[in-house]
What we know:
By secondary structure, the chain is an alpha+beta fold.
Amino acid sequence: xxxxxxxxxSKYIDLTEEEKSIxxxxxxxRSFKKGTLLxxxxxxxxxxxFILKGCIYSYYLVEGEVKxxxxxxxxxxxxxxxxxxxxxxxxxxxxxxxxxISIGSQERSxxxxxxxxxLAALGPTVLEDELASQRMKYDNFIKLTPEKRYxxxxxxxxxxxxxxxxxxxxSYLGIKPExxxxxxxxxxx
Length: 189
């Protein structure tokens, strides 16, 4: 599982064998069953996550209805807003599948940064990449029709369509499941 983390970091930096060894010593890898809530509305996030295996989704509960905002899969970091702002979370993070996750905390990150100072420079770069990605998703959500958003999802993350229940995909697209069924039928023609 270490290789998944090293592969992700290699997009930004070439790690030495010694640095890899230090990282291996410090990370906490845990397994979570499908349906496990990693974060609830009203909680303060004390951990951030890196998905080694599985799928997690974030959602709001609005008048009892689930409003999906994001899906996270292998090789994706998750830094809850609450982790950064130190305010209670307004949304949930839930395991959609059985997951294996590397868990980070500010204390452990600080300790690792002391031992591998080159990693400190990655923070802003990784954050910029994540912010740009989120901004593009937001812009596409605003300017594209639900059908185009579905086609984007189909082109960019086709595996998600087989891993995620249709009602959650519909929620993510901001439509009802019936509307998603009609879109899928039109696309198949």
